Every structure is written in C-alpha cells, then in structure tokens.
Amino acid sequence: MGIPELLFLLQGLKWTLALSAIGFLGGGIAGLLVALARTSERTALARGTAAYIALFQGTPLLMQLFVTYYGLALVGLQLDPWQAVAIGFTLNASAFLGDIWRGSIEAVPRGQVEAARALSLGYASRMVDIVLPQAFRISLPATVGYLVQLIKGTSLASIVGFTELARAGAIVSNQIFKPLVVFGIVGAMYFALCFPLSLVGSWLERRLAAPTR
Amino acid sequence: MSASLSPPDPGDALISMTGVDKWYGSFHALKSVDLQVRRGEKIVLCGPSGSGKSTLIRCINRLETVQQGRIVVDGIALDDSAQAVDAVRREVGMVFQSFNLFPHKTVLENCILAPMRVRKASRAEAEATARTYLDRVRIGEQAGKYPAQLSGGQQQRVAIARALCMEPKVMLFDEPTSALDPEMVKEVLDTMIGLARDGMTMVCVTHEMGFARQVADRVIFMAEGEILEEATPDAFFRTPRHPRARAFLGEILAHH
Ligand SMILES: Nc1ncnc2c1ncn2[C@@H]1O[C@H](COP(=O)(O)OP(=O)(O)O)[C@@H](O)[C@H]1O
Ligand SMILES: [Mg+2]
After folding, report:
1. Residue B210: which of B190, B239, B240 has the closest Cα?
2. pLDDT value for B2
3. Closest residue of B to A212, CA-based?
4. What ligand has the least distance to the C-alpha of B175?
5. Domain extents for chain A?
6. Which of A20, A26, A105, B141 is within CB 3.0–4.6 Å of A135 for a Cys-Cys bond?
C-alpha cells in the first residue's frame, strides 16, 4: 500500500463527497417540493406524492440507479453517468427527505397555522414565515441522520461506472491483495465523514429536546 | 354599559349569521344558528364544554367551513372564494386560548408580520403601529423578547396586540383566559375591558362572568350546537330562562 494507492483512494473519496453533495442538494430542493406537495390540502396532489414517496422508499436505490442509467438508455434516452446518478440520487433523496420534512411540517402545532390564517397570511407567507422555520428545527436531527445514510449510499454509484470510494477500494485491493488493510482505510475514511455528522445529529437532538431558549 | 335588547338592525350588523349549520362528519356541531352582531357591540358567548362556541366563532373568520347558511362580515359574504375569505380575515382579529404566538419570532416580529405581508405596510410603519399597541397592552418593554421568555398573561396580551396591529373591525376571543394561571387572568381581562371601552366590536367566548357583567351588551348561551338564550347580562344572571342555562350558571358559580 503506497502513496499512489492512497492517492487513488483519495480520488474516490472526492467522488463520494461530490455524489453526496449532489444527492443532498438535488434531493433537498426536490424534497422540499415533495414535502409541500405531500402536506397540500389538494388531496389528489397529496395522494400522488404519497405514492411517489412509497415507490422510491420501497424499492432499492441500486435498482433506481439501474433504471435511470441502463433502463432509460433502452428507450433511447442515453444519459451520461453523471446525469443518471444526479437524477437517481435526487429522486431517491427527495422521497426520503420529503417524507422526513412532511413529518416535521405536520409536527408544527396546528395553532400556528390557525393563527397565521386568522391574520390573513396567505399560503406562501404561512409556509415561509411560520411553518418551515419551525419544521426545519424539528427536522434537523433526522435530516443529519439521513445525510449519513446518503453518504454511505453513494457507494451504489459504482454500478454505473463511478469510481467512488468503495469502488476505488475494491480496485486497489484487487491490485495489492491486501483487502484488510485497504478496506480498513476505506472504512476509516467513511467513518471520518459520517461519525462527526452523527455526533452533530445527536447534539442537535439533545439541544432541541431542551426547553426552548 | 349594557344596551337595550332592541332587535338588531341588519343594516348595522357587522357580523350576520343566518341559518348556519355545521357538521363534523355526521356530528351536527352547529344547528341553525342565527346571530347578528352590531358595530361596537360586545357579545359574551357561554355554554358547557363541547356546545359549539369555538366552532361558532371560528366560522366567522372561516377557520371552519359551514355546510349551510349565510355568513356576512362587514358586508362581505363568506363564500368559497379565497378573496372573500382573505378580505374577512383582514377585518377580524382572533385571540386563542393557547396564545399561538410564533415562537421563533420576537414579540415585535410577531406584531409586524401580518401588517407587512398583508397590508403591505413598510417595516417602519408596522413597527410604529406595533409599538403603539404593545404599549397599550402595557408590554412595550418586552418587544425584543421571545414568547417563551414571557409569562402566560404577557403572551396573551402580546397576542391581543398582534391582532390589533391589523386594525381589525371586530375581535374574536376564544377562552382567552382559560389557559392562564389564576393570578394572570386579571391582566388579560383588564386589557379586554380597555379594548371594549375604546369601542371595539367583540365576540368573546368566556366563562368569566364578572367580565360579562361589566362589558357585555348581550350574553348568548349555547348548548349542543344551538343558541338557547340571548339576554342582557343582568337578565341572564338574575333570571336565566332556559333550564340548561340555569344548570350551567349553577355550576359556574359553584366553581367560583
Ligand atoms: N375538528 C373537529 N372534528 C370533529 N369534531 C369536532 C371538531 N372540532 C370540534 N368538534 C366537536 O364539536 C363539538 C363542539 O366543539 P367546540 O366548538 O370546540 O365546543 P366548545 O368550544 O363549546 O367547547 C364538540 O363535541 C367537539 O368534539
Ligand atoms: Mg372551545
């Protein structure tokens, strides 16, 4: 295990970070729309979104990536791996984040929305000024927890040809025949990313459980 | 303070409910309710728990929809149109039992939000208005605090100021003192009495009978979704006609 191998693993780590960022950004933006649609008073919209969430939560991410890359290519829509992965992770993360945030929106006490309505505030203001800031606070621990899952889930991008951290580890391990050493290092790298996030998550959880201000 | 019980002149009615029926699923919550509230009038609405008092006043600003009947507020007929609902809510302030202040906003921010968003007031205008009303409910010094830093009585006074900042034509109160520790009830009632003296039209769900005697033009008694009795406070407390009203008053007085 020399410097070139280590650099190769760091390249993989870089892709893992990039994929996580894409999944979190794309999934975050789409997830907000999913959460708003899911909590909408329009029943058709809310039900349709519930089905969307069930579909993407109920099938493996691996399969979703497979469909966006190979499946769409079969019907003539050839995406490059970046596009396929960005779309796949965005769809998947939007379902999970959307569901987390749906729960957080619903956890904001009813009286808050009623007071806002009584003040004649419209939907946009009720959401932006009243509900979402409170829902955001409520959702923080679960959102951070999901981010950890997402980082680990990026390893699945290897099936469409990405050499992210896990795949880089497999390649190096096959070259130097020291799987324990290589995967020990790969594991330590994942751990270095995820463990601090988990700590932040549980810190937030404790802080939010304490009486407000 | 109590006025005569002359039949309300519909032309002068700020709130007019006629033949209002409301069901929650199969449960008949309001049964053919008729209620006229004149400009400047103060109404106290009382009755046993579950009799439909909250439901009734929440229909006035469309927090609840009704299945039948007509509700007109300040000349605006409440129908399903969003414009009518918004227009009515702009003129109707509401104070809730549980205050419902926005916990992530300071007292001042709670007060300026709706004037800025709905009335399109500038921040400076909205703050000036807010400070006037916060001073009026004698809580001006707390403008920079968060709701959780205030006592229940202070929070409820902020909630009153927040509603007043929209300069409503009528104020609805839904048991504003029921969630308060006894020592804080008076400060909120005094604020409401001050508001009444200034001529505000008020519909108050409350069991504070002292307040009713002092302020109300009419007391309305409800049970099981029906208005069973309407009278001046004097008449209502001295000689309640309906047996259920007598039973209700007996219980209230026993508890005080
Ligand atoms: N959202 C609701 N869904 C079903 N039933 C309700 C709902 N809100 C109120 N009710 C019922 O309607 C009746 C009247 O309620 P409410 O107006 O809150 O009474 P009050 O304010 O006089 O105590 C009660 O029996 C209550 O259980
Ligand atoms: Mg009630």
Report:
1. B190
2. 42
3. B148
4. 2
5. 3-212
6. A105
Q: Label residues A64-78 b or e (16+ Cβ within 10 Å = b).
A: bbbebbeeeeeeeee
Question: Whole-number mean pLDDT of chain A?
Answer: 92
Q: Could you tell me the pTM of the whole model? A: 0.90
Task: Take atom 13 of ligand 1 and give the residue whose Cα is closest.
Answer: B50
Residue labelled with tokens 């407000």? A212
The token pair that represents B232 in the structure block: 């001046």
CB A192 within 8 A of CB A16: no
Distance from CA of A212 to the nearest CA of B (A): 7
The dotted CATH code for A3-212 is: 1.10.3720.10
- For ligand 1, atom 24, which residue shows the shortest CA distance? B50
pLDDT in tens, B23-56: 999 999 999 999 999 999 999 999 999 999 999 9
Q: How far is B86 from chain A (nearest CA, A)?
A: 6
Q: Closest partner residue to B118 among A111, A121, A211, by Cβ?
A: A121
**How far is it, in rounded angstroms, from Cα B190 to Cα A3?**
78
Non-local (6+) Cβ contacts of A210 within 8 A are: none
Residue numbers in A near B163 (CB within 8 A): 118-119
Is there a contact between A98 and A30 (Cβ–Cβ < 8 Å)?
A: yes
Dist CA A46 CA A52 (whole Å): 10
Cα dihedral angle (B126, B132, B134, B136), rounded to 10 degrees?
-150
Closest residue in A to B88 (Cα) is A120
Distance from CA of B253 to the nearest CA of A (A): 31
- Sign of the CA dihedral B109, B115, B116, B118? positive
Distance CA A127, CA A135 (A): 10
Residue of A nearest to B149 (CA): A213
- Closest ligand 1 atom number to CA of residue B64: 1
